[in-house]
Amino acid sequence: MVSLICTLQSHRDDVNCVAFSGDLLATCSADKSICVYSSRDFSELPFSPLSGHGYGVHCCCFSACGQYLASCSTDATTMVWSMDTGEIEAVLEHPGRSPVRVCAFSPDSSHLVSGGSDGSIALWDFTSRTLRRTGAVTDTSIVACSFTPCGQMFITGSTYGDLRLWDLNMNHLHAEKNAHDLGVSCAEFAPKMMKGTDGCVQFRLASCGQDSLLKIWIVSLLPSAGIKMQLARTLTGQSAPVLSCAYSPDGQMLVSGSVDKTVTVYQADEGILLYTLHQHDRYVTACAFSPTAPLIATGSMDKSVNIWRMEEGSSAQGKSLPDEKAGFSNTEGRKTCGHSRLMVSEWSEEEVLAWLREEGLEAVTDAFKSNNIDGEELLSLSKETLSSDLHIESLGLRSKVMKKIEELKMVPVSNGTPDEFLCPITREIMKDPVIAADGYSYEREAIEGWINTKNRTSPMTNLPLQTTLLTPNRTLKMAIFRWSTSQ
Question: What helix, strand, coil percent values describe the chain, rounded to 5?
Answer without folding.
Answer: 15, 40, 45
